[in-house]
Amino acid sequence: MLRLISRALGFWKRADSSASEREQHQNLLEGDTILKTVQGVVTKFCNNYGFIDELIYFSGDVVTGGVLLKVGQRVTAIVEEDTISHELKAIKVDPFCGSYHGHGPSDSCTGVSFGCLTCRMDNADHEAYFSLDVVCKGFEPYPGDRVQVEFCTQPDTRSRKAISVKPLRHKHVHEACITSLRGRSGVIDDSVFFTLDSLKLPTGYTPQISDIINVVAVESNQSCYTWRAISMIPVKKS
């Protein structure tokens, strides 16, 4: 009799456990969040919060080991996705230093940082200086330009070295019109800033108001303008 009661209690316990597991699974399916593990790069960190890959939000208190993260640092994160809004939030962030391709540890961390040029590139709580030798071909950096910088960090000294610099975004504008000129600066289609101090032009060509031109522009903070022309070719002169 005791054996039968014990078996019955064991069965009920297993049944309750299975029911609980099914309920938890159903809650995950019907609930507002989904959990997943991802690897990425910290693209912003300030005031005790940040973003991974510019999409995943995290707060400083979920970073393991009390580590103060830096922009460009690679991390592994447990991410919570809201099934309704699809917003991503990390509930645990583990920093690590390793190769991008997962072939084991390396002697340096490689990362990507985003910023706006002044006389140097400022980003959050650090400053990054770079040589023009690492700037991509055809791009001459100018104060205000939005740039993407790939860098390596030596774990022993925590020193950072830029290995490539390129515009964050660029665009081609065909048959645009020079709408204003003032000194060595001007505006194209009332929306794209340019300066002769940093502009590639065909030999012998000087921009004039009403010239029709083809332009390559990069994203840049220039007063009330968000684009800066880096090259200009006349299609029709005024």
From TrEMBL:
Signal peptide: none
InterPro entries the UniProt entry points to: S1-like_RNA-bd_dom
Domain S1-like RNA binding, chain residue ranges per copy: 37-75
Record's keyword annotation contains Cytoplasm: yes
One cellular component (GO) term of this entry: cytoplasm
Keywords linked to the UniProt accession: Cytoplasm
Subcellular location: Cytoplasm
Name by which UniProt lists this protein: Cancer/testis antigen 55
Organism of origin: Hipposideros armiger
